[in-house]
Each structure stands twice: as C-alpha cells, then as structure tokens.
C-alpha cells in the first residue's frame, strides 16, 4: 500500500493548481455576478488536457486515470467556484459514452466532448422525481429511423449549453416497468429542444441548471447509448463515478475552508495576540484537518479502486454518507472561526459553506446512498 501520489499525479496536481490560479481565479467574481461562466471555459480545460481524461487518445482523450480527474476536481474545489462541474460533466459523460457506446457513437460524440467544443449534460431528474426510475414521464416513441421524445427534464446542468446530453427516457415500446429506461444521446440544438432560464440556487452560482422541454424531438435510433431498456444500469454506473468526483470537489472546498481559517487565525488579534494562540481555535483547526484527511483518503481509495475496474457502487455511496456531512461540518467550523465575518459575503468561507450544502442532494441523495450501502451489507 503506497500513500504517495505517483510523479505523474503530482505533476497533474501542480498543473491543475497553476491552471486555477491563472484561468479560474481571475474570473471567479464575474461568474458569481453573471451567474454564468464564459463559453470558452471548456476549451481552456481541453487545452490544459483536463477533458476526456479517462478516454483513450484515439477518440481525442488523454488516456489517463480517474484518480487524476479527482485530483483536478479537488484543486477546482479549492477555488470555491462552480467551474469543476462543467469539467466533470464532460469527463464523466464522455467516459460513459466510451464505456457503453458503439464504435460509430464513440467516433461521433467523443472528439467534440474532449476538445471542449461541446458541453455535455446527463439528464435523469424530472419535476416529479430525481430518485425513482419507475416514475419517469418523459417518453420516447419509435418512428422510422428515429425516436420521438416528449416531456420535461429538471435541473439539468449545462442543459442550455451547446453540445450533447445523455437523456434517460421511458421507452414506450418496452412494457417491463423496471427495465424500460433507455439512454439517448441528444444534440442540444435539435428542433423542439428548449430550456428554461437557469434555476437560482443558494450556492453554485453559474451552475446553469435548467429545465429542458422536449416537444417532438427526433433522435436517431443510432444515437441510443448501450442497449434499449438498459438505461438505468448505465445511469447507476455513471452516478457512482460522479459521487467520487463530487467527494473530491468537497475535499477541495474543505481544504480551502481550512486554509482560510488558518490565515484568519494568524491575522485576527484577540487580547493583542493572533487569535490562533487560543486552544479552542487550535482544536477546531486540528479537527478540520483530521476530517479533511480522512475524507481525502477515502476518496482517493475509491478512485484507485475505480481505476482497477472494480465495482464502486457501495464505495462511492460510503463517500456520500461520510464525506458530505463531514466536509459540511468543516465549512461550518470555518464560519465559527471567522466569527461574524464568516457570515458576511466579504469572506470566502461564507461561499464555501453554501456550496458544500449541495452535495447531500445532487448526484443522488444521501438517503438513497444509505440504502445502497446498507442493502449491500445484507446481500
Ligand atoms: C445544483 C444541482 C445540479 C443538478 N444537476 C443535475 C443534472 O445534471 N442531471 C440530473 O438529472 N439531475 C440534476 N440535479 C437533480 C438532482 O440530482 C436531484 O434533485 C436529486 O437526485 C434528488 O432528486 P429529487 O430532488 O427529485 O428528490 P426526491 O427523489 O423527490 O427525494 C426527496 C427526498 O426523499 C428522499 N427519498 C426519495 N426516495 C427515497 C428512498 N427510496 N429511500 C429513502 N429516501 C428517499 C430523498 O433522499 C430526499 O431526501 C441537480 C440538482 C441540483 C440542485
């Protein structure tokens, strides 16, 4: 067992940190003000070799590891911006297309997702459900060489950005209720595809989560991902990887909260001395550091096991159960250390606290993950 990163991974961490300092930090405030990021953001990620990380080079990818994706995600988390999510969405959607797609599908969709000219989405959630595949109401009906899709998807990240999305839809020809979800790759500029304005959240400004409206949208049968009726399996595999990437983003948020707290503890004077001289503050810092270390180790372990090709359903659910509330508590401690300044928008920790709140419900809820991990123990 080796707890050290390889020389390649250390280089990736450094490259990701330099990228964040050079490209992301200068636009951080603007993203928040605009509730959006510049369209060329993805091309910048592509130039820095941060897209298609786990996709083989022959399809335009980098041919690297999941561990390296989560190292990048962690660095992006430290910026306290939303920018990790477009990068992660392109990486995970491209990897899913590579895992399940036919040769034609891979050749058609992977290069634009890897070179940053197309924004990816992955869409399951609908107004009535985000957890239950049997409750989907968006439908696909075959018609010649096409399927015709109708319905509404909710909270679709990047659903309003030019590119392609994997949409999970009820396949009307399949009668088995449990196996009637099919995954379609949809061009987001198709006729009949429209979107709402982005939802406004308590954090993650610029996330670009929209409702997507399908009105008789035609999708080629050739654009089905994997087998018809196998959509829920495809979704479960994608979402397990997404949980690991999200955990890495959370570790980054937590580390930024600790870094800010250490800085503040040295600068703020109490009784004429830097506040950090007080044991109570030192204890909070120590607790934060220990919690972040534990979360980081669990997250790296899950990514390494994913790279070995093992199943990650339960491991990634454990990350939801442990990493999410633990990092949320770390960001709360950071607010506490900053006193009332932590509650003010002048300080980064206020934002880190709000951003950390998303992870209990996005990319499957904490409760669903307890059911996955608990059920596995009894099987
Ligand atoms: C910022 C953001 C980005 C998002 N991006 C995307 C995206 O790109 N694509 C996408 O498809 N969705 C996206 N979502 C939606 C998100 O994934 C869903 O909201 C989430 O899966 C939860 O679904 P729900 O809100 O419908 O909750 P519900 O499924 O209605 O659940 C409500 C509550 O009931 C609990 N619950 C439900 N079923 C069970 C059960 N069987 N056992 C125990 N408890 C249960 C849940 O844990 C939760 O507490 C995004 C959401 C946000 C906020």
Describe this structure in words.
Helix content is 51%, strand content 16%. With 379 residues, it is an alpha+beta fold. It has three domains: 111 residues, Acyl-CoA dehydrogenase/oxidase, N-terminal domain (Butyryl-Coa Dehydrogenase, subunit A, domain 1, Orthogonal Bundle); 109 residues, Butyryl-CoA Dehydrogenase, subunit A, domain 2, CATH 2.40.110.10; 146 residues, Butyryl-CoA Dehydrogenase, subunit A, domain 3 (Up-down Bundle). The strands form two sheets. Strands 1, 2, 3, 4, 5, 6, 7 and 8 form an eight-stranded mixed sheet that branches. Strands 9-10 form a two-stranded antiparallel ribbon. Helix 1 packs parallel to helix 4, helix 4 crosses helix 7 and helix 8 runs antiparallel to helix 9. The longest helix has 37 residues. The chain is globular, with a radius of gyration of 21 Å. It starts with 6 loop residues before the first helix and ends with a helix. The site of flavin-adenine dinucleotide (FAD) has 23 residues, from strand 1, strand 3 and helix 12.
């Amino acid at each position: 067992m080796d707890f050290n990163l390889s020389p390649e991974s250390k280089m990736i961490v450094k490259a990701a940190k330099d990228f964040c300092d050079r490209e992301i930090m200068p636009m951080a405030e603007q993203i928040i003000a605009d509730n959006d990021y510049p369209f060329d953001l993805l091309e910048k990620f592509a130039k820095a070799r941060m897209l298609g990380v786990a996709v083989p080079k022959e399809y335009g990818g980098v041919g690297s590891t999941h561990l390296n994706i989560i190292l990048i995600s962690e660095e992006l988390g430290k910026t306290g911006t939303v920018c990790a999510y477009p990068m992660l969405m392109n990486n995970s959607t491209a990897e899913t297309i590579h895992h399940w797609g036919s040769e034609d599908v891979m050749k058609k969709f992977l290069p634009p997702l890897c070179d940053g000219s197309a924004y990816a989405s992955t869409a399951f959630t609908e107004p009535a459900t985000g957890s239950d595949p049997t409750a989907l109401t968006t439908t696909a009906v075959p018609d010649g060489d096409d399927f015709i899709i109708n319905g509404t998807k909710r909270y679709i990240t990047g659903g309003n950005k030019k590119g392609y999305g994997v949409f999970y839809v009820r396949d009307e020809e399949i009668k088995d209720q449990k196996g009637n979800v099919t995954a379609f790759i949809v061009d987001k500029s198709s006729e009949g595809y429209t979107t709402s304005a982005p939802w406004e959240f308590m954090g993650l400004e610029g996330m670009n989560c929209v409702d997507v409206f399908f009105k008789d949208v035609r999708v080629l049968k050739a654009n089905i991902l994997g087998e018809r009726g196998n959509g829920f399996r495809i979704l479960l595999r994608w979402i397990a990887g997404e949980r690991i990437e999200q955990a890495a983003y959370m570790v980054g948020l937590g580390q930024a909260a600790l870094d800010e707290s250490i800085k503040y503890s040295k600068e703020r004077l109490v009784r004429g001395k830097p506040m950090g001289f007080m044991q109570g503050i030192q204890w909070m810092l120590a607790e934060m550091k220990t919690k972040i270390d534990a979360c980081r180790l669990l997250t790296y372990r899950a990514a390494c096991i994913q790279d070995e090709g093992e199943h990650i359903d339960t491991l990634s659910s454990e990350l939801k159960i442990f990493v999410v509330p633990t990092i949320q508590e770390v960001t709360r401690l950071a607010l506490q250390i900053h006193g009332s300044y932590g509650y003010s928008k002048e300080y980064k920790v206020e934002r880190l606290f709000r951003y950390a709140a998303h992870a209990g419900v996005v990319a499957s809820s904490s409760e669903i993950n307890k059911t996955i991990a608990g059920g596995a123990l009894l099987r």
